[in-house]
Design brief:
- This is Mannose-1-phosphate guanylyltransferase.
- There is one protein chain.
- This protein is an alpha/beta fold.
- It is built from seven helices and 26 strands.
- It has helices at about 35-45, 60-65, 85-95, 115-125, 180-185, 195-205, 225-235, and strands at about 5-10, 30, 35, 50-55, 75-80, 105-110, 110-115, 130-135, 145-150, 155-160, 170-180, 210, 215-220, 250, 255-260, 265, 270, 275, 280-285, 285, 290-295, 300, 305, 310, 315, 320.
- The strands form seven sheets. It has a seven-stranded mixed sheet, with helices on both faces. A five-stranded parallel sheet has the order 14-17-20-23-26, covered by helices on one side. Strands 15-18-21-24 form a four-stranded parallel sheet, with no helix packed on it.
- Helix 3 (about 85-95) packs across helix 6 (about 195-205).
- The radius of gyration is 21 Å and the shape is elongated.
């Protein structure tokens, strides 16, 4: 069966403002590369040879970086929404650019996961499913759409955010649609895959299955989660084909100037042209290009914007500065 993919990267990332005022969430650096690169590499490593990026906010920033996808081993195309069409509307719009295929993997643009996409695709095929949702288990499902599974792993119900969830299984942001399912989504209309498409598919008796995988999963939609995702990739808590080769628990650009007495660890990323002065500690943090960190500073679990100057003696903990 031939498989293509759609990556939903049109969101503004409002929970990450003001970090996302100039750069869309999917283009923010996570372990020194744009977050979207981690997902593109994941698709390519599962044997997918075509992916359409469904863009909207700051759409012009994607193609200059990713190009035609040749250096990632996958053919990349770009769909654009002049006004947001919702998740399903965005999928329908992007599908116009797909080459003929049997099934389509849909990625949410803000989820870092360690789940096996190859295993999900095999599960989809083995169950002769029309739709397969990647599910994961959480302690508290109130902030997410929760899913009820039958004994055979078919989906009994898909329920949006609710105060008393009937299940602790959630839609983890990667689903497989048979190609014809997408063709039935209304074209050019605002449609939500969670509120509209999934419930209507279940009502119509569509074969919808849930693929449960409880490996690493993180929604990167907040500054704290973004920092955690980056540090976890650098320290190897989760693996990605996009993470740059490095030694130890840090990534430091060749053009950064680091004083020998500075301590940089716990998954920190130091971008190009950064200056770090003496007796400064940087732990689990992302330091943007051209930033200057003074003497005797302590920066922990934080993000420092490109070009920002941090004065001597400053302590920055779980914060973001310069945006």
């Amino acid at each position: 069966m031939s498989t293509s993919a759609i990556l939903l990267v049109g969101g503004k990332g409002t929970r990450l403002a003001p970090i996302t005022n100039q750069i869309p969430k999917p283009m923010l650096l996570v372990a020194a590369v744009p977050f979207t690169e981690h997902q593109i590499r994941k698709a390519a490593s599962a044997g997918i040879n075509e992916i359409v990026l469904a863009t909207s906010y700051k759409a012009e920033l994607f193609e200059p970086y990713f190009g035609d996808g040749a250096r990632f081993g996958i053919n990349i195309k770009y769909a654009f929404e002049s006004s947001a069409l919702g998740t399903a509307g965005g999928i329908r719009n992007a599908a116009e650019l797909l080459s003929p295929c049997d099934q389509v993997v849909i990625f949410n643009g803000d989820v870092l996961s360690g789940h096996s996409l190859s295993s999900q695709l095999k599960f989809h095929k083995d169950n002769n499913a029309e739709v397969t949702l990647y599910l994961t288990k959480v302690e508290d499902a109130r902030a997410y759409g929760c899913v009820e599974l039958a004994a055979d792993n078919s989906v009994k119900s898909f329920l949006e955010k609710m105060e008393n969830p009937v299940s602790n299984l959630i839609n983890a942001g990667c689903y497989i649609f048979n190609r014809n399912i997408i063709d039935n989504i209304p074209k050019g209309k605002v449609v939500s895959v969670e509120r509209d498409t999934f419930p209507s598919l279940l009502n119509a008796g569509t074969k919808v299955y849930g693929y449960l995988d409880n490996s690493y999963w993180l929604d990167i939609g907040t500054p704290a989660a973004l920092v955690k995702a980056s540090a976890d990739l650098v320290t190897g808590v989760i693996k990605s084909g996009a993470t740059l080769e490095h030694t130890g628990d840090r990534i430091i650009s060749d053009t950064a100037v680091i004083n020998s007495s500075a301590l940089i660890n716990n998954g920190s990323v130091i971008d190009g042209e950064v200056i770090v002065e003496s007796d400064t500690q940087i732990s689990g943090s992302i330091i943007g290009k051209g930033a200057k960190i003074g003497k005797n500073c302590k920066i922990i679990d934080s993000i420092i914007a490109p070009g920002t100057q941090i004065d001597a003696g400053m302590v920055v903990i779980s914060n973001y500065l310069g945006f």
